[in-house]
Amino acid sequence: MSALQPVRGTRDILPDEMRRQRAVIDIARETAERYGYLEMATPIFEFTEVFKRTLGDTSDIVTKEMYTFSMKEGEQITLRPENTAGVARALMSGGLSQQLPLKYFYAGPMFRHERPQKGRQRQFHQIGAELLGVPKPQGDIELIALGAHILSGLGVYENTKLELNTLGDTDSRQAYRAALVEYFSDHSDALSSDSRDRLERNPLRILDSKNEGDRKLVAGAPVFSDYLNAESQDFFAAVKQGLERLNIAFELNTRLVRGLDYYCHTAFEFTTDLLGAQSAVLAGGRYDGLVETMGGPATPGVGWAAGIERLSMLMDRDPPVPRPIAVIPVGQATEEIALTLTQKLRHAGYGVELGFSGNVGKRMKRANKLGARAAVLLGEDELANNSATIRDLDSGEQELVSLDAVIEHLARYR
Ligand code: ATP
Ligand code: MG
Hints:
The protein is α+β, with helices and mostly antiparallel strands. It folds into two domains: 241 residues, 2-Layer Sandwich (BirA Bifunctional Protein, domain 2), CATH 3.30.930.10; 89 residues, Rossmann fold (3-Layer(aba) Sandwich). The strands form three sheets. An eight-stranded mixed beta sheet has the order 1-5-6-11-10-9-7-8. The protein has a five-stranded mixed beta sheet with strand order 13-12-14-15-16, with helices on both faces. Strands 2-4-3 form a three-stranded antiparallel beta sheet. Helix 1 packs antiparallel against helix 5, helix 1 crosses helix 11 and helix 5 runs parallel beside helix 9. The protein is elongated and about 95 Å long. It starts with 14 loop residues before the first helix and ends with a helix. The structure holds adenosine-5'-triphosphate and magnesium ion. The site of adenosine-5'-triphosphate has 18 residues, from strand 6, strand 10, strand 11 and helix 11.
């Protein structure tokens, strides 16, 4: 440990990376707004109960990954590992249940104590969308369409595939769970110890176990589709049909599960081959029982979240670096006018760099390094005639213009 290093799993985001992440957020927010999902934010910490209740005592996040602190008052708070719980909490504490349906977009930092590697950090960032109060498959379709739209806006869609599954309604899930418990109990000797644990608490999670032996057993396990009742089948069929109508391709993945009871019907994940083991890009599903689990009124919900770092790594382009105008005083006597001109240009909407010191050569060098588009050179002779030289730093062409006309002449360099 060194106090001069960032804490393991955290990073400084310097301007080049920040510009990419900002582009991800801006494109996502702008797209979300077109679908009526408005940005909101919840606090980055909540009472620990909020996450325990919603994520369940057996989830990886709750058992291993949460940053939890005891307050002086004896209360336990946790840095949010994800944002759906916070949104559901906000729905209740803000009395928003009267205003359903609600459509929210969010972006911000999340915290999970896991093993850092490329695309996996302890402080990372997510964008996400939640739709509350819509029980119909149209909600699932809209939300997946929004996710796909954002991915294509970022140039990422082509490098992902959409995996889709259904967890059915409560009855279907119970029937399936019973079948799974029976099957895996017969083979419990061959199960990993983690999965033996899950068998009692959370048998569906065995389906996405990464253990070799478990995987072999899973291959022969009962499949969910055999246990879906008619309503659940209809719901899933409607989701698939909607996606087909919108030309959003998907693959069925019966192993795509969420372990908790309030997850139902649609589960989906956009994955990629380009990020090694960190294949999940954007993941979500329907969580009709969640708000009730937290003690609120029964409220259907569906949502997704995506990792901003992973999206930034996948984004197909660098957002343009803004190119400033360089104002360059030539000689001491012109520094004052350079200062006032700089400020005037900034107020007129230009990005302007006024070097703090140095001779003309040094300032020109710095202007080039910053990628300046044009330079306004203020020499004593020019000023005697109330004018300045504007040099196009790409072509090298320059022209002498009157000081009053500088703003007008710079318009072409915006
Ligand atoms: P993974 O399987 O990679 O651990 P997850 O199932 O834990 O992902 P979710 O909880 O569904 O992920 O979160 C949604 C998205 O957030 C993921 O698809 C991923 O893009 C991103 N994400 C999750 N955990 C991290 C992390 N530790 N660092 C960076 N991004 C993350
Ligand atoms: Mg994880």
